[in-house]
# Entry
Amino acid sequence: MTSTGEVEGRAGPPLWWARRRDAVGDVVLGGVSAVECAWEGVPFAREAGIPLVFGVLFGLAVGSVLVLRRRWPIAVVLVGIAVAPAAMGFVLGVVGLYTLASSEVPRRIIATLSSMSLAATFVVMYLRTRGDVEADHTLVVVLSGFVAVALTVPPVLFGLYIGARRRLMESLQERADSLERELSLLADRAEERAEWARTEERTRIAREMHDVVAHRVSLMVVHAAALEAVAVRDPARAAKNAALVGDMGRQALTELREMLGVLRTGGGEKPAVRAAAVAAAPVAPPAAGRYPHVGSFDDGPSLDELETLVGQSRAAGMVVEMVVQGEGEGAAYAAEVEQTAYRVVQEALTNCHKHAPGARVTVRLAHREGEVAMQVENGPCDGTSAEPGLPSGGNGLVGMRERVLGLGGVFVSGPTDAGGFKVSAVLPGR
# Structure
């Protein structure tokens, strides 16, 4: 693993520099400043009456301070102000002020040091030009002020501009990174929502297929067994059972075709509309409410078809009593409520065919204020009827519970004290 600043196995920038080229640039600037100050140290040594070598060494030391401009910009500017009377450090002063203005130093410190540099430059220029220029005092002042402003203001303004631009770019980069992270999170959540929607749809399709196929095929097996038993001694009854088996098969095929048609057409919705609906769905399934279904419930079974459903079980030899309570006969419920109620009764009757042959079954439907309740209860088996040998996947009760809880209802199932089994459900009307 490479450390911060290392690229492709090469060593990163030294010390406080962020990039290697910054370090190289500062060393070059420091070298230029050192040569300039060393050159200017010669007249300074003559004026001060010291050996030339000391003036050159002093100039080299002062100019080399510019290497530290990124680390200690305030110190670099202070050194430039301090050596201003020696008439050296032109590069040091200009670059130092630019670095100070572009750094993260508070504005009041930048203003203070810039003012000190401006004043120092003005005083030095005034003192040096007063005796050299044969002109009036006003011209000397104007000339000194112009030079002081020219050496101080432009680097400070340029540094402020570069610093503001850098901070703006960093802010924009930070916002871009933040937006990228948010987009990544949104993409992950959209994928989660799509996966949850696919899982819910697979579960719903499996539940619908189980309800359609299991009930119809169970009745067909029961009628086929009866047909086999009476084919020789009662041809009329055998023909009747054969006709019922054909009707059951045609009904099963019709329901399967309708279901497959809904899957192919997407319930009349365009793919883009369905994709948008899936993306807008919550990640977690609601604790109480409607499951998202593809297609419409309007074409599914309703409570009005319960009599026909019970009649099919009676035709298969089951003793079924249907009791309807309440003033809500014929009341209009939400389409998904009626379909769920129908499927609960259908699956309960299918289980009676499978596991309680010959038992007496009671189907109760109660219309209450704002809700509808249903109960399917079978007594103990009579002991004379053989089980039809229908396979059971163990998903019937699970599917009923999912349907009822998905609509915010209550589902209870279990054995009775009389040795039978009971399935009860209560659904909200809307």
Notes: DSSP finds eleven helices and five strands in the chain. Strands lie at 319-325, 360-368, 371-378, 410-415, 421-428.
